[in-house]
Amino acid sequence: MRFNAKGHTKRTALPWLGATLAAVALLAACGGGGSGEGLDANGRPLSEGEDPSGPLLPNFRSIQSHVFTPRCTGCHAGATAPRGLRLDATNSYALLVGVSAGQVPALKRVAPGDPDNSYLIQKLEGHAGVGARMPLGGPYLDAASVNTIRQWIKNGAVQ
Q1: What are the structural domain ranges in the chain?
Q2: Which of 27, 32, 48, 85 counts the highest number of beta carbons within 10 A?
Q3: With left for phi above 0 and alpha for psi between -120 and 50, is residue 86 left, alpha or beta?
Q4: Which candidate, 122, 86, 116, 90, places its Cα nearest to that of 103?
Q5: What is residue 78's three-state secondary structure?
């Protein structure tokens, strides 16, 4: 502690400087000043298969980031989405899995465990009884991508 000419204590900025530097170092170590690499649009860490530059995997997050978001949300988004099927990351799972297909109510859009009776697969492969193959007008998904989506559905279409 220091005293001034009148005998009063004199505070220095040095203790505060040390605490400030420690806080800055901690934030930098935690990624507080990072580039955002490895994070989604909301700043959350990407899960395995969620990175669109990686391989398409048979899990919902991977399918969302590789297929639904880049290929489907051009049409299937917002209030004008066909049949109310919004395929953005916030809504797609709840509007796909276990939900009756609007054009063919006897089918589920995604029937967990049953890709052959999932309207999504029929639309992607182009053999649905109603409507056009998806994505509308192409380019269509390759067989490997459709098979990955089939595998996710066969595995129970878990979120």
Answers
A1: 1-34, 60-154
A2: 85
A3: beta
A4: 122
A5: coil
CB contact at 8 A, 117 and 127: no
pLDDT in tens, the chain (159 residues): 555 666 655 555 445 444 444 443 333 333 334 444 444 454 444 444 466 778 999 999 999 999 999 999 999 999 999 999 999 999 999 999 999 998 899 999 999 999 999 999 999 999 998 999 999 999 999 999 999 999 999 999 999
Nearest to 122 by CA among 106, 110, 112, 113: 110
Residues 97/110, Cβ–Cβ less than 8 Å: yes
d(CA 23, CA 89): 35
CA-closest candidate to residue 142, choices 67, 65, 61: 67
Q: Which two tokens stand for residue 45?
A: 């860490």
The model carries a pTM of 0.69
CA distance 112 to 155: 7
